[in-house]
Amino acid sequence: MKATLKDDQSAPNQLTYDVIICGAGPVGLFLACELALAKCSVLILEKAQNPHSLLKQIPFGIRGLSAPTIEALYRRGLLDELEMHKRLKNPHQNAVQGARRQVGHFAGIPFHEGDIDTSQWTYRLPGSPAASLISEMQELETVLARRAATLGVEIKRGLAVAGFQQSGEGVTVQCGGQFFNGKWLVGCDGARSVVRKAGGFEFAGTEPQFTGYTTKIDIADPEKLKPGRNVTPKGMYLQSQPGYVVIQDFDGGAFHGSDEPVTPEHVQEVLRRVSGTDVTISALQAVTTWTDRARQATTYRNGRVLLAGDAAHIHAPLGGQGLNLGLGDAMNLGWKLAATIHGKAPEGLLDSYYTERYPVGEKVLDWSRAQVAIMEPTQQARALNAIFRDLMNTRDGATYFASRVWGIFTHYDLDGSHPLTGHSVPNFELEDGTKIGDLMHNGQAMLLDFYSNDSLKTLAAEYNDQIRHVSGPAKEQLGLSAALIRPDGIIAWATDSGPDLVELCKAADSWLVRD
Questions:
Q1: C-beta neighbour count of 363 within 10 angstroms
Q2: How far is residue 494's CA from residue 478's CA, in Å, rounded to a whole number?
Q3: What are phi and psi of 439, to 5 degrees?
Q4: ∠ CA(409), CA(410), CA(413), 5° rounding?
Q5: Radius of gyration from C-alpha coordinates of the chain
């Protein structure tokens, strides 16, 4: 795919891209892949010259992928390209009844594999992708960048977006002395998003309780620090490997918000105070700071400018839900923006990006705030922590927390009477062994027709190449006779009986345009 020539040459760049994305992190890259898959021309502008960073590598860069993310990667044929989860044992793979292996946590309180009752997850079929996997940020970015390049996405690194101007026809983005023209601009440029600030988006929320430090340090006397997660009267420190230390200092986020440099002396002072030891740091190899500030843009769109990922919402990285939330934004936005660009979007389709994703983000922010509330170094928080620990040691409690952390019941509030409407489509296996997720690599909508109904085949043909008609029985149909699946894998309509064509057409016309 190539960008088209711009008729108006007032800006110094001669090309107009369908979409310019600011930020080449996982969210920006995945969004670019979705847009390019739908035949849009895409330019990514990334301020960092080198995509590799120590903080994206093991152990700093380890992230837990949740069920919606895993399903999205699987449906686009990307999951098998991630090698790390094959090298490490997956959190719930090869489960042993009664095992007490930790597979996740809430505010540092673990829940265990043998306590999770997966029978409560009614619509997860045998053979579905894992509900949770371990990945590495650097590997994920490498895989997504490779796919983006294969699809024709142009990535320019070392270019920091300074500002932009938009009109009714498009957006001109400035990077130093260079200008780039696009029909749309999407800010995927993180918590300190230039696009969000320059676009005048309101960023509402709550102020932080702590400053977090992620460090790689040389320690002269490492025996003074305990391994694992340690809650103290002054905060928390976590030593995952010798020299890799995460610290939470409940200073109200004061240091992160200051302009003070993060020196070895400062890290040593904080670590000594939080750990209650006189540990000595001999060298500071790498460090980044963060907080539990929880904010969300009050809208994700301003004209031809949109936000996704941390540019749209930020919160403490407790439980690693930020990456999954951002990738969910990309999966939801990509096909909707592409349909808008190609003139195949029903009225309100692009606006549904915000109405669907904002509530999901809102719940994650509250989940993060709840964790902070029971981590504070106060007597009240310690009392709450003990109660949560008791709950999480029950079967129903562990199942609930795993379901929330892994996004098992993430769904959208769509019109429709069937209980699966708005949920991710189960990975049905057809009689020939083909699984539904394997049929979604091209990003088309799909009409599942388990009883080979001729009227459904005729209806799908009215949308030309927008809907793929998949006919024939599945090994386990969960009582369904037919279902309409959006390009992002969400069920837009389903029925257990003979299809009501009026109802089906209404659902299809909400998301697609007939040719």
A1: 14
A2: 11
A3: -95, 5
A4: 110
A5: 24
Give the Cα separation of 219 and 216 in Å (integer): 10
- Euclidean distance between CA atoms 37 and 264, whole angstroms: 46
Q: What is the mean pLDDT of the chain?
A: 91
Give me the helices (H) in 216-350, please: 264-275, 321-341
H or E segment at 173? strand 171-175
Going by C-alpha positions, the residue among 191, 171, 190 that lies closest to residue 182 is 171
Cα separation, 276 vs 273, in Å, equals: 5
225 within 8 A of 317, measured Cβ to Cβ: no
Cα-based distances in Å from 120 to 97, 106, 251: 16, 20, 41
97-148 pLDDT tens trace: 444 788 889 998 999 988 999 999 989 998 889 898 888 888 999 999 999 9
Q: For position 204, what pLDDT does the model report? A: 97
pLDDT of residue 60: 59
pLDDT, average across residues 360-365: 96
* Integer CA distances (angstroms), 373 to 83, 363, 378, 386, in order: 36, 15, 10, 13
Q: What is the 3-state secondary structure (H, E, C) of 482-513?
A: EEEECCCCEEEEEECCCCCHHHHHHHHHHHCC
**Are 111 and 102 contacting, i.e. CB atoms less than 8 angstroms apart?**
yes
Token match 């309409």: residue?
484
Task: State the DSSP H helix or E strand holding residue 288, giving kind and residue range, or none if neither.
Answer: strand 281-291
Predicted confidence (pLDDT) at residue 323 exceeds the cutoff of 80: yes
CA dist 160 and 283 (Å) reads 31
| Alpha-helical regions (H) of 109-179 | 137-150
User: 417 to each of 335, 413, 474, 487, 492, how far by Cα in Å?
Assistant: 25, 11, 22, 21, 11
Identify the pLDDT of residue 45. Answer: 98
pLDDT in the model for residue 216 = 92
Residue 418 has pLDDT above 50, yes or no: yes
Alpha helix segments (H runs only) across 6-106: 26-37, 67-75, 84-87
Question: Which stretches of 342-470 are DSSP H helices?
Answer: 351-373, 379-392, 395-405, 454-461
Q: Please give the pLDDT value at position 510.
A: 96
Token pair in block for residue 58: 């093991």
| CA dist., res. 448 & res. 494, Å (int) | 9
CB atoms within 10 A of CB 150: 10
User: Which of 60, 54, 71 lies closest to 331, judged by CA?
Assistant: 71
Q: Is the pLDDT of residue 14 over 90?
A: no
Burial environment of residue 202 by CB neighbours within 10 A (0 to 12, 13 to 18, 19 or more): exposed
Chain centroid, CA 386 distance in Å? 30
Prediction pTM value? 0.93
* Under 8 Å between Cβ of 271 and 247: yes
Whether residue 237 has pLDDT greater than 90: yes
